[in-house]
Amino acid sequence: METVILAVVIAVVVLAVLGGLVVGSRRKKPLPPPPPAAPDITAPPAEPHVGDEAETPRDEPRRTIEEVDLPGGGAPTAVEEPPVVEAPGIEIPEPTAGRLVRLRARLSRSQNALGKGLLTLLSREHLDEDTWEEIEDTLLTADVGVQPTQELVERLRERVRVLGTRTPDELRGLLREELLKLVGTEVDRTVKTEPEDRKPGIVMVVGVNGTGKTTTTGKLARVLVADGRTVVLGAADTFRAAAADQLQTWGERVGAHTVRGPEAGDPASVAFDAVKEGKDMGVDVVLIDTAGRLHTKTGLMDELGKVKRVVEKHAPLDEVLLVLDATTGQNGLVQARVFAEVVDITGIVLTKLDGTAKGGIVVAVQRELGVPVKLVGLGEGADDLAPFEPEAFVDALIGE
Q1: Does the annotation flag 351 for ligand binding?
Q2: Which of 10, 145, 197, 307 has its CA 20 to 30 A from that of 125?
Q3: Alpha carbon 157 to chain centroid distance?
């Protein structure tokens, strides 16, 4: 009996323990999370209706329009205006007398080689045939020309033989006399700009491109203005780009009016208008810059003749100046011959007669054309153009 009771007790205990384990395991399992609460939805503010305010009106002090500060109450901002470009002031060119002194000194420095070479050869103790040939070569190298060189050498030989003695002063004086005979001292070298019976004087400037023709025209205007003359410039070089602008710039610097036409237009028409305006304005001189034409272009040279004929419908030309580059030497004579056939050249302007030039071209070109050198340019400065003086030129060649 006791055994049965003990078995029942053990069974009850076992059942109790098993029951407790089952209950404990159930308690350890996590409970599912509670369902989320419904979010609070805030209704958007209602759109204001017509005539309503967006917010609930608040009691605020009202201001009249007079009490409201308008924007931009500070100092007004100044608007910067574009700078005004002032016209260049009119220059006062250097007087002719002043520039002659300066140019004479410059010519003396640059051209002494020819004179010194001749004096050195003439000062030799024995003047044999070889020495006289060297003298001829020196003159030819200086572009004096074949015929003038032969004439000068013959006269020098005769006078040296007659004199017998050859001191440096005697030789310098002898050479000066003979060179002056070649250059010529009796020729009228005045640039004719003052006709007696009318106004204005008409001057046409011709030459090949690159000789400084347009620049010479502008510099000649400065010479005339310096002498108290009034000038109109005619930009008849319509073939070269910017030629008219270049000439107009020269004119503006001295207060000279420039007549111009369209690029590639009729140069004869521009020349005609320039003379007409010069007459209407009552100026003293009209300077006409023509196109720099190649002497091998027959059509262009014919055009130059047309310009001359059209201008002469107003009045005869007073001067036709041929501009030559002194550095071209004998090649410039070819150009001179052709221009002389088309228009009647009355005077020559030699430009670039500086240290790179050969002074003998003065003799050669005068002998070739039979017209005098009237103006010379010795530099690139605005006032580096002056009337040609034979005495000053020869003195510069042989050294004073």
Answers
A1: yes
A2: 145
A3: 50
